[in-house]
Known about the structure:
Blueprint: E1 22-23, E2 27-30, H1 37-45, H2 47-50, H3 62-77, E3 81-88, E4 94-101, E5 107-114, H4 123-135, E6 143-149, H5 153-162, E7 165-172, E8 182-190, H6 191-199, E9 203-211, E10 217-222, E11 233-234, E12 237-239, H7 246-258, E13 268-276, E14 281-289, E15 303-308, H8 321-331
Parallel strand pairs: 5-6, 9-14
Antiparallel strand pairs: 1-2, 2-3, 3-4, 4-5, 6-8, 7-8, 9-12, 10-11, 10-15, 13-14
Amino acid sequence: MAPTEPDNGCFSLGEGWRGEPLTTQRLRLRLPEPKDAPEIARLAGAAEVATMTASIPHPYPPEAALAAIGLAQRRAAAGEEYRLVIERLADGAMVGMAGFTIEANGRGMLGYFVGREHWGQGYATEAARRLLRLAFGPARRESLQACVIQGNDASVRVLDKLGFAFSHEATAHLPARGAAPIPVVDFTLAALDWRARHAARPMVLVAAAALVDADGRVLIARRPEGRPMAGLWEFPGGKVHPGETPEQALIRELDEELGIDVRDSCLAPLAFASHDYDDFHLLMPLYVCRTWRGDPTPREGQRLAWVRANRLAQNPMPPADLPLAAILRDWL
């Protein structure tokens, strides 16, 4: 018997990025749209932001932002530059933009900004780390450069976390700084160095449960403020400790999180998620449970909701949970 002919769609990554949104633990990166112009102008046009960038003028009117959006869309379609909006998964709020140019010599220039009210929350690092995977994967860059105004210590810390190394000092003319040249510092990151760092990221094993009640509803929990991925809804569960099986970990976590008693025999494996979160890789088996003792009670500051399976995806969920929600919907 001849082998089954493969679906060519499974091999599309090597052909380049097709414009689909990119996700991280907390963020979504997508191409800008005309409706984004007022918010882009507000965030980028603030003096504290514009004066730290290489291309944003100050003041920055919405009509200039609208023109920049059109240019970004055309350059993305031509494969010359990817300049993306950064928005939170939990509420869809825009927090900034990030992107990189694509040059013929295999290099690119990384750039980003985050609105003043969103500083200090790690959004720039998280968004840029996702862009590196695009740049050194489907976009096939050999190296990326980044330019930082001298004194912008926050951006230097971001680049250091990403693995960029000092290249050289220079000067640049910045629209928001007038005609005088401004001292800047250039940093660089090679694809080989990024791949070595990316390959060394840890594998995290998490077990999750879909608790299904007598009416066929599924229990989901909303992560509280102050926790990673705060505001997103997920299946209850947690990390598997050394020496534990996934079932043992899940029984322990359901007791700690919800105060319910579950037996190993009541956990039916349904599916698993394998998801790259850029700084770690998540492997998460999902078990279905219909029988337990006690009433689920939020013990760790989370919110609980019983939701029909066909409405699970209407709640903002971590990227790893979304495909599991689709499988569960079809199964139930």
